[in-house]
Fold:
Amino acid sequence: MNYRHIYHAGNFADVMKHALMLPLLRGMQRKDKPFLVLDTHAGIGRYDVRSEQAEKTGEWRDGIGRILETPPPALAEYVALMGSLGLYPGSPAIAAALLRQQDRLVACELHPEDAATLRRNLRGTPGVAVHERDGYEAMGAFLPPPEKRALVLIDPPFERTDEFEVLSKSLVAAWQKFPSGVFVVWYPIKHRGPVRNFFESLKLSPVRDVIALELLRRPDTDPGRLNGCGLLVINPPYGFEAEALPVLQACEKVFGEPGSSSVIERVINE
Ligand SMILES: C[S@@+](CC[C@H](N)C(=O)[O-])C[C@H]1O[C@@H](n2cnc3c(N)ncnc32)[C@H](O)[C@@H]1O
Structure:
């Protein structure tokens, strides 16, 4: 495991994902009934973007750095939450901050050092449990949850060349155990081929009701670059798309280069 998220925390792809977590969590919270957030690839939860590691790539400057220069109104709530949390918050910190008394967060992280840091960072937060374990395997263990409602956030490092295949198999297996769950997958767009194959594999499965939100900073002609990223959402919560669109468009406005685009598209019907 070579990947460490500190080198990438706060880059444009992280910001898009984190900003979209707010309408996702709000969508889940339209109902009073409790739910579980299962963060399968949680990272360390809080990132010092001024640290030596983060500054080594400087990716945050082209991401959250640009947002903070002139915060777009559609991201005001996200920026305010970040301000109240201190260091740049990762997905488990955002989920933990928005949990209601009745909700729970289970955050899984496989890297032993990062799992220990995450545990320290979230220590004492009510309703939160950190597990050092494989996030794909954890979906089998924690789903279906006793609450019968869950938001499952799957954010792998895409270090392995077969990550899309492993992801697709694990996702379909988890959906089969818990077809009413809300599953959210972050994926990179270097070029269209791997993403198309991922979508095709889901179309051949029994999974229904799937949308994708994509931000392309530039046309994906150079496969050596992270040209964009997407969030695939199975069973999107009611009202999510309407709230997500301005957030996505604001990200395009800040991060887009000539030829950029942002879309919400339906991948599989209900
Ligand atoms: C992209 S980062 C996660 C960032 C985090 N979700 C956020 O938004 O703040 C991916 C994380 O997954 C961890 N990881 C890699 N393989 C894993 C696995 N099979 N199960 C759980 N965690 C894994 C890595 O150590 C890394 O911290």
